[in-house]
């Protein structure tokens, strides 16, 4: 397993305006509200050649106007969710993060409420990557990619694991951003690649006591190694040079019911709910609240995700956002 050099990592501090050092008194614990959300193939209006075909075809309905309408819809949703940190999957490039920040600012600047810190990463030449926007400083950003040559089939394109530290009033929390291999082409055939990504995450979380992993794992909670349903404990499996090991984390899908979290799942596919977007937390972290957020403009009347459709320019995403209040 090697770490390829073809990687784009952009850490954008103070996206718009400046920021002063915090003067808030030291506290023994802090809280952050974190949203993780797959925003569904969010491309800009510039053709780079790496976009999905429907976004670069000469007959495509994608345009500058379509992008700006979609950007406005996403920013409306972000404002309503009102979180401290947003982890977004399926973003094309860092330029979109600037557009989001400027759209949210609306011509005004308030350093206490604006998302003034951001990060974006993806493989060079990849169509989409992942981004983090935060009200609090981001630092120590790293990416952890796979170069597997021991399987019978060649490794497909996969998003890297991103690790970044968010600091609130001197208290650091490490966030691991995930977007695992999809089940396109067959769930069983692609499972080996999600296993590899699980191994990378488990190895990093074993070394990081104050951490939360989130994102789109393309694996339902029932497909993980569940240690305890009652305690919500999942064993993430790691295969390293010294042999196989596991790290236990807490998964809120197991400890909450539909009534308390607001939805049976985060993804609705072929008339069935799936829990493939996740928060996983270490023992040193507490997830005080966990919600699958529903609301306008990202949810249909039946509380399913209002997926974006290009032909009419309507909708937002085929996933629902997860919202967690994290105490650390």
Radius of gyration computed on alpha carbons: 19 Å
Specify the helix fraction band: 10-25%
Distance between the termini: 33 Å
Q: Give the number of DSSP strands.
A: 17
Question: How does the major sheet shape up?
Answer: 7 strands, mixed
The protein's oligomeric status is single chain
Helix and strand succession? EEHEHEEEEEHEEEEHHEEEEE
What is the overall pLDDT average? 92
* Structural category: alpha+beta
Individual helix count:
5
Strand content: 25-35%
Strand arrangement within the widest β-sheet reads 1-4-5-3-2-17-16
Low-confidence stretches: 1-5, 17-25
Q: Shape from CA axes?
A: globular
Give the secondary structure arrangement, pairings included:
Elements: E1 7-13, E2 31-42, H1 64-81, E3 85-91, H2 94-105, E4 117-123, E5 129-134, E6 138-144, E7 161-168, E8 171-179, H3 187-206, E9 211-216, E10 225-228, E11 233-240, E12 243-250, H4 252-255, H5 258-261, E13 267-269, E14 272-274, E15 277-281, E16 286-292, E17 322-327
Parallel strand pairs: 2-3, 8-9
Antiparallel strand pairs: 1-4, 2-17, 3-5, 4-5, 6-7, 7-8, 9-15, 10-11, 11-12, 13-14, 16-17
Helix pairs in contact: 1-2
Tags for this model:
single chain, about 325 residues, alpha+beta, seven-stranded mixed beta sheet, five-stranded mixed beta sheet, 5 helices, globular, disordered N terminus
Can you characterise this structure?
The protein is an alpha+beta fold and 328 residues long. The protein contains 5 helices and 17 strands. The chain has helices at 64-81, 94-105, 187-206, 252-255, 258-261; strands at 7-13, 31-42, 85-91, 117-123, 129-134, 138-144, 161-168, 171-179, 211-216, 225-228, 233-240, 243-250, 267-269, 272-274, 277-281, 286-292, 322-327. Strands 1-4-5-3-2-17-16 form a 7-stranded mixed sheet, covered by helices on one side. Strand 10 (225-228) and strand 11 (233-240) form a beta hairpin. Helix 1 (64-81) packs across helix 2. The longest helix is centred in the middle third of the chain and has 20 residues, at 187-206. The radius of gyration is 19 Å and the shape is globular. The chain starts with 6 loop residues before the first strand and ends with a strand. Residues 1-5 and 17-25 have low confidence and may be disordered.
């Amino acid at each position: 397993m090697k770490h390829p050099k073809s990687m784009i990592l952009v850490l954008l501090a103070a996206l718009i305006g400046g920021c002063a050092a915090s003067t808030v008194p030291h506290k023994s614990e802090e809280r952050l509200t974190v949203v993780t959300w797959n925003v569904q193939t969010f491309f800009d209006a510039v053709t780079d050649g790496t976009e999905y075909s429907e976004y670069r075809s000469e007959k495509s309905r994608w345009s500058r106007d379509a992008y700006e309408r979609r950007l406005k819809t996403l920013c409306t949703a972000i404002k309503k969710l009102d979180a401290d940190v947003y982890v977004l999957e399926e973003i094309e490039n860092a330029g979109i993060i600037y557009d989001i920040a400027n759209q949210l600012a609306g011509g005004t600047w308030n350093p206490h409420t604006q998302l003034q810190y951001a990060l974006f990463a993806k493989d060079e030449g990849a169509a989409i990557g992942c981004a983090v926007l935060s009200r609090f400083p981001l630092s120590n950003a790293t990416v952890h990619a796979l170069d597997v040559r021991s399987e019978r089939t060649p490794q497909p394109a996969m998003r890297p694991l991103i690790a970044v530290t968010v600091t609130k009033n001197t208290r650091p929390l490490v966030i691991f951003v995930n977007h695992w291999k999809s089940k396109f082409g067959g769930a069983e055939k692609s499972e080996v690649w999600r296993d590899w990504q699980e191994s990378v995450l488990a190895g990093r979380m074993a070394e990081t006591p104050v951490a939360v992993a989130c994102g789109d794992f393309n694996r339902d909670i029932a497909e993980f190694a569940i240690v305890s349903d009652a305690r919500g404990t999942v064993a993430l499996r790691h295969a390293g040079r010294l042999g196989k090991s596991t790290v236990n984390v807490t998964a809120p899908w197991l400890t909450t019911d539909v009534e308390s979290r607001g939805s049976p799942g985060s993804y609705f596919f072929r008339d069935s709910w799936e829990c493939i977007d996740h928060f996983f937390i270490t023992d040193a972290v507490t997830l005080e609240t966990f919600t699958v957020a529903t609301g306008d403009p990202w949810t249909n009347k039946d509380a399913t995700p209002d997926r974006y459709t290009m032909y009419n320019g309507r909708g937002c995403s085929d996933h629902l956002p997860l919202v967690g209040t994290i105490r650390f």
